[in-house]
Design a protein that fits this description.
Structural class: alpha+beta
Strand content: 25-35%
Helix content: 25-40%
Distance between the termini: 69 Å
Number of helices: 8
Shape: flat
Number of strands: 18
Largest sheet: 13 strands, mixed
């Protein structure tokens, strides 16, 4: 039998439930043909799911995700038994845990500015990724421990497994947990790190000197000058970014503008050097848009703004 070729348009029709019986059989035979084809199928399946998510622009509810996966499951059941192994990536991974770590393919998700993404890892851990973040993780976790690599901000709800610690490698620090809820803010281009613990227990380790500390619930640790400084969490609203809310408490006006760049995927240039920079407290819903947020801020700070849509820049005057 000759080599079967598949184009992405056919795969996406298949994922969307629009492929003919002939095309479904063609996809099935293509997957069975080689391990490389099977891996490409899984990669395209993930990209398709992510594209659907970004098209909605909001975080999927867990119930909706379960219904969606169930529908896909029953589509695949109609095909040969081997296809059942490729139904859902999160369920698939456990079938390949016996492979060595070198053989396990890494997956990477990049979140554009202005977007947020919700992921479910193979062990049941749930991850929310903030704007401008990316995460790399294996198709299935090898024996011994679970490791992911983060650049940006993410909120984790880690599935408990005392025999297999969960480790987040973020900028210069590693965050190790067994099962907990925590937030990591570590954008490499900003050169900052902050770990915040909401539930459970985490261990923060500096990869350079191997110094470490244990963080208790309701506390956070921020890096300053190569050292971690621990403080109590006084505002939990700041972690509601995963709900589509921009929240700030006693934050300088210019830093609020800086955060808008990340959330709204644009540049903000402050041209008025004499602009007031008061500490402000408030919250905005991301879906209301940047101009609505600026008009609300004008009640507390005297400024004008001009938006250059073509260059995607807002000038503060």
């Amino acid at each position: 039998m000759g080599m079967i070729s598949i184009n992405k348009e056919l795969l996406y029709r298949f994922f969307n439930g629009e492929a003919s019986l002939e095309d479904e059989a063609k996809v099935k035979n293509w997957i069975e043909e080689s391990e490389e084809n099977r891996r490409e199928f899984l990669r395209e399946r993930k990209l398709f799911d992510l594209a659907i998510f970004n098209g909605k622009g909001v975080i999927r509810l867990k119930a909706e995700r379960r219904l969606y996966r169930k529908r896909i499951f029953f589509e695949f059941v109609k095909m040969a038994a081997v296809i059942v192994l490729t139904l859902l990536v999160s369920f698939l991974y456990t079938n390949f845990a016996s492979r060595s770590e070198e053989e396990i393919a890494m997956q990477t998700v990049n979140v554009p500015y202005g977007q947020r993404v919700n992921l479910s890892l193979s062990d049941g851990t749930t991850v929310w990724l903030n704007s401008g973040s990316h995460i790399s993780y294996p198709e299935s976790f090898a024996k011994g421990r679970r490791e992911v690599y983060l650049d940006g901000e993410a909120y984790f709800e880690v599935a408990h497994n005392k025999e297999k610690p969960f480790i987040v490698h973020a900028t210069e620090y590693d965050v190790e947990v067994l099962g907990t809820k925590f937030n990591v803010d570590a954008y490499s281009k900003e050169g900052t790190f902050e770990g915040s613990l909401l539930e459970g227990k985490i261990k923060l380790t500096n990869r350079k000197d191997r110094s470490s500390l244990m963080l208790a619930p309701s506390y956070k640790a921020a890096s300053q000058g190569g050292h971690l400084f621990v403080s109590k969490i006084t505002d939990y609203d700041v972690y509601r970014w995963k709900e589509g809310l921009i929240c700030f408490k006693n934050k300088p006006f210019t830093k609020i503008l800086k955060s808008f760049e990340k959330y709204y995927d644009l540049r903000i240039v402050v041209e008025n050097v004499k602009l007031d920079n008061p500490l402000l407290t408030g919250k905005f819903r991301l879906s209301d848009g940047v101009e609505y947020a600026l008009k609300v801020l004008q009640k507390d700070v005297t400024f004008k703004y001009i938006r250059n849509v073509d260059e995607n820049i807002i000038y503060i005057r």
